[in-house]
Amino acid sequence: MMMEQINESKTYIEEQLSTTKPDIGLILGSGLGILADEIENPKVIPYADIPHFPTSTVSGHKGQLVIGTLQGQHVIAMQGRFHYYEGYSMQQVTFPVRVMKALGVEQLLVTNAAGGINESFNPGDLMLISDHINMMGDNPLIGPNVDELGPRFPDMSQAYSNELMKVAKSCAQEINLNLQEGVYVGNTGPTYETGSEIKLLRTLGGDAVGMSTVPEVIVANHAGMKVLGISCISNMAAGILDQPLSHDEVIETTEKVREDFIKLVKNVIKKMA
Ligand code: HPA
Question: What protein family does this chain belong to (predicted)?
Answer without folding.
Answer: Belongs to the PNP/MTAP phosphorylase family.
